Amino acid sequence: MRLLALAIASALSFNVTYAEDSSQTTPTVATYAIGGLHCPPCTRTVEASLARTKGVKSAKVDWATKSAHIQFDENVITATQVSDAVARTPHMMGGGMRYSGTLALSVPAIQDKATGKTASDALTKLPEIAKVNVFPSTHTLTVQFKEGVKLTSSQLIDALDQVGLKAKTY
Ligand SMILES: [Cu+2]
Questions:
Q1: Cβ partners under 8 Å of residue 88, min gap 6
Q2: In CATH, what number does 28-161 get?
Q3: Distance between Cα 67 and ligand 1 center (Å)
Q4: How many angstroms does the Cα of residue 122 sit away from the middle of ligand 1?
Q5: What is the pTM of this model?
Q6: Bridge-based pairing state of the strands 140-145 and 67-72
Q7: How is the chain split into domains, by residue range?
Q8: Can you tell me the distance from the alpha carbon of 83 to that of 156, in angstroms, rounded to the nearest whole number?
């Protein structure tokens, strides 16, 4: 019984290693819109929390733009899990206040309401996505994820590629 369990465990770990080897190796650099920033020191609270998060290589939160520039390894932590790490950060004001992180994507082909809707529809089809906000004037969109899901930035970019829209994190 014990031997069988070991055999299963080693088979599983082999599969995990294989999956990691076949995925991307360069770190993702992405901008997240950060919600719940109450005062400038909140930026350091979120930065410190991300710095302690496994797979996050660097994080800079900007008070003026309420956004974060985050570098992370998606073999270790996916784009959705980075959002969860922001949301799990205890708020410095306590109480019912919460931080949130929504991933921003640059989609140059988003020029108006119609192209924005194409992008939004392609993404909201994915079960991991809670909400998409489109900003035609800056050719960007932000993606709010459901909690506890696993989706990489490449999977989001692929979903947009399938409807003919080139996208990237920035
Ligand atoms: Cu604060």
A1: 49
A2: 3.30.70.100
A3: 14
A4: 35
A5: 0.84
A6: unpaired
A7: 28-161
A8: 14
